[in-house]
Amino acid sequence: MRKFVLYLFMVHLGLIVQPLVAQPAIFNNSILSIPQGAAIVNGEPSYYNNIQLISDIEGNFTLLAAQQSNLVSVDTVVVTVLQSFPVQVSVIVAGNKSVPCVQLQTPAVVRNGSVFTVILAETTLGPAESCIAVLDPFETSIPLDVAGLAAGSYKVSVNGVEAEFSL
């Protein structure tokens, strides 16, 4: 459990990308509130909102609450490498949201060795909201932080759909 909590916290603090204003994690009255986070457990990605962890006297955290978000359906992943200085890499993702009334959430990006994992989820409808039940296509670009990486082959996986690129 401690690894899961630490991983959620690490993703929130530094690995969520896109130029959006991030809400900070807040620690108050022994409760750590994290607005968004992602986890990869046994190779399966998950995305969470409104995460609350409680701290005990030894500094360990226990999960109190978290709302899991639906991951979007990904059809294609295309990597673009701009031969600039410094080199810039983006992932163009196309797929479908479950309904037109939800938005894409900030993607979570983590790199382990030569593999980038991107977790892309959608917002949820409120309890009083309804929406036509039809898939809604999307396309989005997600920058990858490749600063300082060695030349070589890399892989990116977006909700399980993979592509490769070279630096």
Offer a concise description of the structure.
The protein has 167 residues and is mainly beta. It has one helix at residues 2-15, and strands spanning 26-28, 31-41, 44-55, 61-69, 73-82, 88-97, 108-112, 115-119, 136-144, 153-158, 161-166.
The total domain count is 2
Mean pLDDT: 86
Shape: flat
SSE arrangement, N to C: HEEEEEEEEEEE
Secondary-structure-based class equals mainly beta
Largest sheet strand order: 1-2-3-4
Oligomer: single chain
Number of strands: 11
**Biggest β-sheet, characterized?**
4 strands, antiparallel
Radius of gyration: 17 Å
How does this structure look, described?
The chain is mainly β. It folds into two domains: 2-69, no CATH class; 73-166. 8% of the residues lie in helices and 51% in strands. It has one helix and eleven strands, in the order H-E-E-E-E-E-E-E-E-E-E-E. The protein has one helix spanning 2-15, and strands at 26-28, 31-41, 44-55, 61-69, 73-82, 88-97, 108-112, 115-119, 136-144, 153-158, 161-166. It has a four-stranded antiparallel beta sheet with strand order 1-2-3-4. A four-stranded mixed beta sheet has the order 7-8-10-11. Strands 5-6-9 form a three-stranded antiparallel beta sheet, with no helix packed on it. The N and C termini lie far apart (36 Å).
